[in-house]
Write a sequence for this structure.
């Protein structure tokens, strides 16, 4: 499992937010979120205790509660992809 620095986490978040803004701040539907979430919780790189027990991807160190909601993000392991508007 990877342990990334705060700088790397912030940089990843900033890049995700920039990409999200270029996609009109689109959010997943409840069904799309649930589908992504199920894939995350089944993954060995997911830590349910991360980010105050909301879940963390240990590959990219993102908060899954946030990342799963943004249509412009994708799993670093390609378990789920960006949703094109």
């Amino acid at each position: 499992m990877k342990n990334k620095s705060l700088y790397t986490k912030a940089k990843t978040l900033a890049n995700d937010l920039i990409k999200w803004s270029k996609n009109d701040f689109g959010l997943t539907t409840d069904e799309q979120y649930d589908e992504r979430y199920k894939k995350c919780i089944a993954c060995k790189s997911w830590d349910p205790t991360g980010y105050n027990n909301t879940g963390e991807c240990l590959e990219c160190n993102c908060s899954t509660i946030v990342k799963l909601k943004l249509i412009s993000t994708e799993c670093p392991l390609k378990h789920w992809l960006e949703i094109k508007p």
The radius of gyration is 12 Å. The beta strands are 46-47, 56-57. The chain has four helices and two strands.
